[in-house]
Every structure is written in structure tokens, then in C-alpha cells.
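User: Look at the shape:
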Amino acid sequence: MLLCNRRTLCLVAPALFAGSLWAQVAGLALSTSVGYNTQRLSLKLSPEQAKEAERLGREATAATRAGNYGDALNDYAHGMAVMHNVEWTPEVELASALRGKLDHAMISPGKVTVSISPLYPTATAAAAKLNASIFLVATGKDAVEVAPAVPVNPASFPFTEQITVPASAAGNYVVEVRLAPVAGAVPDGLNGVFAKNLPIHVEALSADADRLRDSIGKVGNKSNPALATAEYTLALYGMVDKGEVNPRGLDFKKEFATAQGIVDSIQAGKDPFAGKHGDFRKAYLSGVDKTLQPYRLFIPEGYDGKPTPLVVALHGMGGDENSMFDSYGKELTVDAQKHGFMVVAPKGRAPASMYRGSAEQDVLDVLAEVERDYKVDRSRVYLMGHSMGGYGTWSVAIAHPELFAALGPISGGGDVNGMVKIKDVPQYVTHGNNDKTVNVESSRSMVAAGKKVGAPITYVEVEGGSHVSVAQPAFAPMLDFFAKYSKTKTASE
């Protein structure tokens, strides 16, 4: 295809923005805008810096709306240089556009090919003079150089180097491609632009994966819904190997053993999740595109098959199905156990999906999965979320107001015109008035619109609260609030 933008001539890019990569770039533009505006409002800028950063932010927003995501990312990168008082040189511009990739990120010790290439074209690339060196970095240890500095030729991307991971290596590492201007040093404040960090896991696992794949292939009852959870282990292994998921926090020896146990139970005619309580992960086969989609589930101790309330929890931008369980301590499951609530957290597709389209369908599909496998009290299903999940809480509820007994959006926002559709749904809304990521006016306007149509809303605005700091403290009072409501009664009844 031909890829053009307002700064360059058309460049031939046969596959650069094709298919899913285009969607990834669109999501990256959205997520970058959040970080950009947070920094713009948080850093101490001169009047000139603030004015220029605001202008570039507006240009990036306009480019995003027009679908020119490369232009948007370039504007954001330029604005970051402005905010850090760094000259916008060809080297800075090209380094901002470059992304790294490994041919495999799940490896035994041995050879690995590292490549870098531009995610979008830049007007000054030909003038950029950069060197690249490669280091292997283990947590808490000194970086080890595995490829010395060599020139990067802007006319010959991708830039590739093969490195050797030593036989003594085991566990999680980062392959760090360090870029540097040929003349001069890396500008202060932009180290992250000039260092491309690629997570890698070193362990002999291919035989384990093959054994699991073989076991799954021998399962007679392929329609058993529990099989999707075992199959997802292989899908996750593949995504980590492609560099799409960070291996940190994953123990694939344990994951493969758990998946094998599920397969063995299915083969024995047993339900592998029967009687299981606590916090665990499951997956299902999506009817949208036949992909395996994961979710995280909490079943309270004491669940005995009687109708039980369910909280659906939506993560923020950049997160996944694990975020609501792991990124705020264990507060959510502790509070859920107190009330005897089940909790489920969908992945919601891409990290910047905003719970629209197929991501919204995932929320509904995960709800249906839990209702199939457990006795859910349909009059007491609650929806909550933080940040993007706060937006998703309002948008999914507005689209499906009949499903939820109460809502809990935290640090979110939405369409004020939709509040009339959920005027009968109780809502516990939380936002900090020092939120530099999602302005508090986003919740204020939703609350005002809701109260105007008579919605029962409890609004907690935290004095001095930041975007993140208000989330965990909101869980306990929010679940207390949920416990008062069902679709057949109100708190006063």
C-alpha cells in the first residue's frame, strides 16, 4: 500500500500499516495521548514550552481523528522533546519513530535476531546519524553488552543484529537496543526514546509446549468449554514469543502443568473447575473472530451453588484481565470475599480498546461465561472500572442498562447524553480533583447529567486525589454500596 502523510512524499510501505498493525498504531496513538497530556499538565513548563506543547497536542488530536496515526505519534514525540527542552533534530525524530522486535522472545540460550524499524515515516530520516548497540539486562544486575555500537542506515530498514544469549542465562531479561547520535550524547529526559527495551524469557520450554499441544489434540470432547482455558496457555505462550505480552510474572512450567491438569480432567469426564474457589484464570472462544480471550475470576470461599452476586471489573488503558486483581494489591478480592461476591475481569481486547465494538462484546461474553458455569444472582450484577474502565463502565451500561443493578466508575467519563438511559441504575462515582490524566470535569459532567434526570448517584470527589491514588480506597465503599442494591429493591427498601 502507499503510505502518505502531510510532511513527506508517499513512501512505499507494503505491509507496515496493514491489518492488525494498523489497529495497534491507532491504539498506540490513543494511549500516547493519555501519557502526553498527563506530562503536559504535570511538568513545570515555561510559557513558551506550554504553548508549543499544547499546539502539538492539538495537531496530534486532529491527525488521530483524521486517521493519520503516524502524524499523530510524530507530533506527540515532537511535543515530548519540547517539554524536555530537547532540540527536535533528525536523530531525535527518527529515534522516536523506531520500534524494536525480536524473532523470538521465548528462547533457550542461543542465537536471537534483534531488529529495529520505523513505525511511521519521518521527513528527516535520511539526515539522521545514529549508532546502535545491544545489551542484555537482568533485573538488579549490570547490563552486559552483546553487540557493540554500529551505524544505523536510515535507507536500509529494518536494522538487524544477531546476538548470543549465554548458556548461563535463565529467567526474565530485557534486550536493550541503545541508540545514540553519532555526534553528541543522548539528550537528557529522552533516554526512553533512545533505548528500545524488549522483554525476553530464557528457558527450555518448547518440549513442554509440544506435550501440551499433543494432549489437547487427543481430547475427544472438543466442545467442552473448559478446553479453551488449556488452549489459551499455548496461545499465551505464542503471544509472549512474538513479543506481544511481557513474560514477567508468568511461570510457564506452572502454566503448562495447570493446563495439563485441565486436559486430564476433561479426558476423565470431570469438570476441572468444580469446587474451585479463590482467584484463577479462565478463557473462552470468542464468537466475534474465533480467538481465545482470557478473563480473571474470583469465586468466594463459601460459594455453594446458590445464587451469588457478581462484580464485573474493567481495567484501565494499558492493562489486561489481571490488572484489577494485581495492580491495586488484593483489595478487590478481599472486599469481594467480605460480601460474598464473585468478581470477573475481562481482557477487553486491546489495551486501548475503550470497551467499544468487539471489546464491549467481550464484556458481555465473559458475563455469559460466568452465568453458564456458576449460579449468578441476575438481580445483583454490578459493573465497575478504573480510568478507561470507568469510561467502559458508563458506555457498556448505557448500551445495556437492563443488565446491571449498580455501577462504579472511577476516574472515568463518558457521553452525558446517555445518562438518561441509566437514570434508574444506582451509581457510586469516584474521581480525584488533582487528576492530571482524566480531568475531574469528565466525572462532574456525567454526574450532573445523571442527577438532572433523577439518577441515584453517590459522588465522591477526593480532594487532592490523583488519577491512580483514588482507585484502591474506593473499592471497599463501592462494594458496600453495591451490597445495598438489586434490580428488585433499592437501598431504602
Residues 40 and 460 are 26 Å apart (CA to CA). The chain has a mean pLDDT of 93.
